[in-house]
Amino acid sequence: MEIRAPRGTYDILPSQSVKWQYIEKILRETAAGFGYREIRTPMFEHTELFERGVGDTTDIVTKEMYSFLDKSSRSLTLRPEGTASCARALIENRIYSGVLPVKWYYTGPMFRYDRPQTGRYRQFHQFGVEVFGSHSPYVDGEVILLLIRMLEKLGLQDCELHLNSVGCPVCRETYRQKLVSFIEPRTAQLCDDCRTRYDKNPLRVLDCKERTCQAAVQGFPHIIDSLCNDCANHYGVVKASLTEMGVAYVEDHNLVRGLDYYTNTAFEVHIPSIGTQSAVGGGGRYDGLVSACGGPATPGIGFALGLERVLLAMDRHPVREWPDLGLDVLLVVLDENLTVNAMHLLDRLRVADIRADRDYNGRSMKAQLKFADKLGARMVVLMGEDEVERGVLPGRSMDTGQQQEVPQEDLIALIKRILA
User: pTM of this prediction?
Assistant: First the structure.
């Protein structure tokens, strides 16, 4: 029986990995340009971290986590997202006692037991950023601007920024009471999950993707009408800073973060043209997260980009050619007795940052030239007994077919000239 990849996972083959490398390079460089530095956290953590850091009423924790007991009967979980791990690292390494704010980025696989569909997998990849240690609404504006600039540098221009505020624990409690009163007569129309959690956390109902729930809450009161003065001012500064930078946005009253430690700004970026799964990234402010994970009160804000969604958008709207990471040179060895000579020449080429390889299956010269074409090599260099004895090597362009013979010591210069 053929063993296949588990459902909801997939292989990233070399023809696709070149795209991933390009995307990750752009994201890393853009984040570094905004003053962010990389953090790498474990792919699994103690389950309690996500129960406290993501929320024990969320679908992620109640339905989607890959949790298991280790040999000491400790519950561990493959990370379903990156923010909680960053908060744990901040606390464990006492980063909060140093120079603040700290600006981190991370990238890597995440894991959720979800229903696989286009752009959604059980092992998926995120690029995220986190800022810890500043309450400033201008930090919110900069974080959102970073997300927009990343997508622009990837050539994705048809982005739609959705923005909202979820207030603070004080004004959110006032809003919670209003929302509960609104939802209570409509509970029969809610899905089972929302019926069990609406009283404890009614904002989760607004975030539900079930159509019956979305229909049931039509006309719900908006949280921005319940914001206290401080939260209203914070939200106003965020919007003004985005307007000043020329970033358009849509106020989305359905956009919420239903956990107690989320505060103020919430945002998502959509690319409507990629289909129903149009959200490519989003985030928000979480001033209560670090304390919820056992650390001192430390404000934070961040976002995560779904790399599968980004790649889907780029493939559907190609704006540039993907970078070519194929071979520069295939060394065509015409006599197996020249293997040692070929090894030394290949090493010289590679040390000179020329991507070079050779055939190891004893093909004929004609077959090796076809092999070079299939590999996408831009040049071939012919090595036969006669050429070695004369101390020369012919280099041939695969594009033009033009061939030039040069002394061996001049070969690298010839290759770089042809490649340029």
Answer: 0.90
